[in-house]
Design a protein that fits this description.
The chain is an alpha/beta fold. Helices cover 40% and strands 25% of the residues. It is built from ten helices and ten strands. The strands form two sheets. Strands 6-7-8-3-9-10 form a six-stranded mixed beta sheet, sandwiched between helices. A four-stranded antiparallel beta sheet has the order 2-1-4-5, with helices on one face. 40% of the residues are buried.
Length: 240
Amino acid sequence: MLKVRNIQANYGAVRALHDISLDVMPGEIIVLLGVNGAGKSTTLKTISGLLHPARGNITFQDQPIDRLSPEQVVRMGIAHVPEGRHVFPGLTVRENLIMGTSNRRVTRRETEQDIERVLDIFPDLKRLYTQMGWSLSGGQQQMLAIGRGLMARPKLLMLDEPSLGLAPVIVKQVFRTIEDLNRQGMTILLVEQNVNLSLRIAHRAYLLETGRIIRADSSANLLQDSSFKSALLGASYGVG
């Protein structure tokens, strides 16, 4: 579905990604792991068109996308839910959801059907439907951000640190939702700081360090690797 090949990406004179290559197959959950600054978010930005690679290529369903604008990438079927949620505070929950349809042509009926689907996935948003984005809790804003991404009807959903800053009980709820979406057929590329939980729901993982992929393996293998767990789970993240 998604093929990233030998991508290099820069922020000005600073190289952020060094020959990154990865694959995402239909129906998979893939997680990108690494400490802060490893290049995980930059990888998502490069795929979504927010940053164009200096070298390499990206294809989605056999179509090149590495020179497309973010709007064009969304229309191709990739939705990017960025770190920090970026909910529009001056808009209601309903208006935030409708913003997720801005890059595709839809009828009012289709929009209402998509909203109903999102509210079925996130029932908490039903009672908050007319409230302003700024009034929602962090967990509710994360639900809204994911819901807004789903309004684009993506084939690939990219989530950047969806559990960041959330209470443990809400984190588990977010991960259950990601699993449920995957069971319904959604392909997901995930960047996560909660290594233990993300490996338990992902099929495969890529470990990044200073803009390079240093390991690619199944989640099951990584969970059983005591040296990997002690180095990344313990020292870097402090989770068990």
